[in-house]
Amino acid sequence: MARPEVTGRKHASRNRTGPLVERAGKSIAEFCAAYGISRATFANWRKDGLGPACTQVVPRGRVLITQESEDQWKRAHTAPVATISAAE
Q1: What contacts 53, CB < 8 A, 6 or more positions away?
Q2: Which of 25, 30, 60, 81 could tie 66 with a disulfide, CB 3.0–4.6 Å?
Q3: Residue 3 or residue 39, greater confidence
Q4: pTM (2 decimals)?
Protein backbone atom coordinates (compact mmCIF):
# COMPACT_ATOMS: atom_id res chain seq x y z
CA MET A 1 0.00 0.00 0.00
CA ALA A 2 1.31 3.42 -0.90
CA ARG A 3 2.05 5.94 1.79
CA PRO A 4 -0.69 8.50 2.42
CA GLU A 5 1.76 11.37 1.83
CA VAL A 6 2.21 10.11 -1.73
CA THR A 7 -1.39 9.26 -2.57
CA GLY A 8 -3.03 12.14 -0.72
CA ARG A 9 -5.38 9.76 1.07
CA LYS A 10 -5.94 9.74 4.77
CA HIS A 11 -5.51 6.72 6.98
CA ALA A 12 -8.79 5.19 8.13
CA SER A 13 -7.61 5.48 11.74
CA ARG A 14 -7.09 9.23 11.31
CA ASN A 15 -10.69 9.75 10.22
CA ARG A 16 -12.04 8.78 13.61
CA THR A 17 -13.12 11.57 15.89
CA GLY A 18 -12.78 9.56 19.10
CA PRO A 19 -14.76 7.04 21.08
CA LEU A 20 -18.52 7.27 20.75
CA VAL A 21 -19.10 6.25 24.36
CA GLU A 22 -17.18 7.01 27.50
CA ARG A 23 -14.94 4.18 28.62
CA ALA A 24 -15.79 2.36 31.81
CA GLY A 25 -12.19 2.04 32.95
CA LYS A 26 -8.62 1.16 32.03
CA SER A 27 -7.45 -2.00 30.37
CA ILE A 28 -4.81 -4.06 32.13
CA ALA A 29 -2.19 -2.80 29.66
CA GLU A 30 -3.16 0.84 30.35
CA PHE A 31 -3.07 0.24 34.11
CA CYS A 32 0.38 -1.35 33.89
CA ALA A 33 1.67 1.51 31.75
CA ALA A 34 0.24 4.12 34.15
CA TYR A 35 2.03 2.57 37.15
CA GLY A 36 5.17 1.40 35.34
CA ILE A 37 4.74 -2.29 36.09
CA SER A 38 4.88 -5.36 33.87
CA ARG A 39 1.92 -7.58 33.05
CA ALA A 40 3.68 -10.39 34.93
CA THR A 41 3.84 -8.23 38.07
CA PHE A 42 0.15 -7.41 37.66
CA ALA A 43 -0.66 -11.12 37.30
CA ASN A 44 1.36 -11.93 40.43
CA TRP A 45 -0.43 -9.20 42.38
CA ARG A 46 -3.81 -10.56 41.26
CA LYS A 47 -2.77 -14.12 42.18
CA ASP A 48 -1.72 -12.95 45.66
CA GLY A 49 -4.87 -10.85 46.11
CA LEU A 50 -2.98 -7.54 45.98
CA GLY A 51 -4.20 -6.22 42.62
CA PRO A 52 -7.19 -3.99 41.91
CA ALA A 53 -10.63 -5.47 41.28
CA CYS A 54 -11.26 -6.18 37.60
CA THR A 55 -14.55 -6.19 35.72
CA GLN A 56 -15.42 -8.25 32.68
CA VAL A 57 -18.64 -6.95 31.14
CA VAL A 58 -19.30 -9.85 28.78
CA PRO A 59 -18.00 -13.42 29.08
CA ARG A 60 -14.59 -13.74 27.40
CA GLY A 61 -14.68 -10.00 26.75
CA ARG A 62 -12.25 -7.27 27.60
CA VAL A 63 -11.20 -6.97 31.24
CA LEU A 64 -11.38 -3.45 32.66
CA ILE A 65 -10.29 -1.82 35.90
CA THR A 66 -12.85 0.81 36.88
CA GLN A 67 -11.75 4.17 38.22
CA GLU A 68 -13.40 3.38 41.56
CA SER A 69 -11.51 0.11 41.99
CA GLU A 70 -8.26 1.81 40.95
CA ASP A 71 -8.80 4.56 43.54
CA GLN A 72 -9.65 2.01 46.22
CA TRP A 73 -6.54 -0.04 45.35
CA LYS A 74 -4.39 3.10 45.42
CA ARG A 75 -5.68 4.10 48.88
CA ALA A 76 -5.12 0.59 50.26
CA HIS A 77 -1.60 0.18 48.86
CA THR A 78 -0.15 3.65 49.22
CA ALA A 79 1.45 4.66 52.48
CA PRO A 80 1.89 8.31 53.38
CA VAL A 81 5.49 9.40 53.12
CA ALA A 82 6.96 10.51 56.43
CA THR A 83 8.70 13.83 56.28
CA ILE A 84 12.17 14.09 57.74
CA SER A 85 13.08 17.38 59.30
CA ALA A 86 16.38 19.01 58.39
CA ALA A 87 17.34 19.28 62.08
CA GLU A 88 17.91 15.54 62.46
Answers
A1: 65, 66, 69, 72, 73
A2: 25
A3: 39
A4: 0.63
